[in-house]
Amino acid sequence: MAAPGFVPPPYPHDRLRELRAVAEAVPGGIVDCSVGTPVDPMPEVARRALADAAAGATGYPAAIGAPAYRQAAAGWISRRFGVTVSADAVFACIGTKELVASLPRLLALRDPSRDTVLYPAVAYPTYEMGARLAGLRAVPVPLDDRWLLDVSQISEADAARALVMWVNEPGNPTGAAGGAEHLRAVGDWAREWGAIVASDECYAEFTYDESGSAAAPATVLGAGHDGALAVHSLSKRSNMAGLRAGFVAGDAALVSYLGEVRKHAGFMTPAPVQAAATAALADDAHVDEQRARYARRREEARRALEEWGLVHDGGPSTFYLWLRSPEGTEDGWAIARRLAERGLLVAPGDLYGPDGSAHVRLSLTQTDDRLALAFDRLAAKEPV
Ligand SMILES: Cc1ncc(COP(=O)(O)O)c(C=O)c1O
Question: Which residues pair with 214 in a beta bridge?
């Protein structure tokens, strides 16, 4: 008899197996825009630093991060957001997914009096999973008509039990961002209720305005460090998802606690990866290039998908398009199937929560050539 304990649900993207086969069968092959895994080049500075550091990596790296890495992260925050952070208030993580999945457990050990994780109702699935792995209540917070957290809809009972509140701006999968003012409101709400605000800002470098021009990114730390953690990743900013590098900055007491527990648990970012991330953080030119590349792809993809009959219904940021049928009545899986029959694989919106079920998410992480093929197929009258 099976043990009656935790049974992991199917991994969200594994649910696409059947649609993937449909797209793969199209002559010329699949154009896979279902996953946000970067394909553009890693910056040369990072590649060089990685190679140079590899030979010297005989000893264990510091779990909290090498001083140079923490300094580079603090320097980047100050440069990009105009917010001062001490290098002592930064710790390294092995990419941010492990951090998102493990944070609630570590925070619950610190404060067992609270048992609830709040997260956006349409969001990266790992926020909910982190709560479940910790044995905590996972409570989705409804989004408003701009896909932003609507804290007014959180019940007082849930607010009083809230250990941590996740916010993700610019947001996956919707591309929405409320900017500094919204992050201040969310941070203030959390402080008022004694919850920690964890702000996942891994798409900050891909903040755009409605015209598609680069816009200033925002951080929750702009409204104060008290009870706040800003979560950052090199995966998207510097096309380094395969190396696994991220960091967290914010409330000094929380950073010190988390750095200490994570040291006991052996959460260590490999030293050559830290060296590559340090070099990448000091360089903005490659990010400017990537930002322009995604802006162009957003524009081209939006035009192609709208001409095909879908409506873009998300915000202007990130490298995702958030699409639905014109009436908003067609199910996301049905839209994804129609696209798969044209060789284009996208993610049905319910992978991000039931409130996303009438949408699909298209990730612009394919080369320009493959995207051009996908758009040509959509423009053809009959499926090719
Ligand atoms: C919102 C969000 N947070 C965190 C992550 C994790 O990124 P990584 O673990 O590569 O830092 C992702 C990855 O897609 C994401 O979309």
Answer: 208
Closest-lying ligand 1 atom to the alpha carbon of residue 35: 14
Whether the pTM exceeds 0.90: the reply is yes
Q: How far, rounded to the nearest angstrom, does the alpha carbon of residue 275 sit from its chain's CA centroid?
A: 22
Tell me the pLDDT tens digit for each residue of 241-283: 999 999 999 999 999 999 999 999 999 999 999 999 999 999 9
- The pLDDT-based confidence of 3 (bands split at 50, 70, 90) is confident
The pLDDT value given to residue 292:
98
User: Hey, how many other C-beta atoms are within 10 angstroms of the C-beta on 157?
Assistant: 10
How far apart are the two ends of the chain, measured CA to CA in Å?
49
- For helices 97-110 and 252-265, angle between their N-to-C axes, nearest 10 degrees: 110
Q: What percent of the chain has pLDDT over 70?
A: 99
Cβ–ligand 1 contact at 251 (below 6 Å): no
Which atom of ligand 1 lies at the shortest distance from residue 99's CA? Answer: 9
Distance of alpha carbon 14 from the chain centroid:
19
CB 349 within 8 A of CB 383: no
Q: Does the CB atom of residue 36 touch ligand 1 within 6 A?
A: yes
Distance CA 285, CA 105 (A): 38
Q: Are the beta carbons of 247 and 65 closer than 8 angstroms?
A: yes
Angle between helices 368-379 and 285-308 (to 10 degrees): 10
Q: Do the Cβ atoms of 311 and 325 come closer than 8 Å?
A: yes
Category of 191 on φ-ψ map: left (φ > 0), alpha (ψ -120 to 50) or beta: alpha
Phi, psi dihedral angles at 4 (to 5 degrees): -80, 15
Between CA 143 and CA 125 the distance in angstroms is 15
For residues 319 and 291, what is the distance between their CA atoms, to the nearest angstrom? 9
Helix/strand/coil for 243: coil
Categorize the per-residue pLDDT at 2 as very low, low, confident or very high, splitting at 50, 70 and 90: confident
Which residues make Cβ contacts (< 8 Å) with residue 384, sequence separation at least 6?
A: 26, 27, 28, 342, 343, 377
Q: How far is the CA of 37 from the centre of ligand 1 (A)?
A: 9
- Tens-place pLDDT, residues 19-50: 999 999 999 999 999 999 999 999 999 999 99
Mean pLDDT of 139-158: 98
Centroid of ligand 1 to alpha carbon of 215 (angstroms): 21
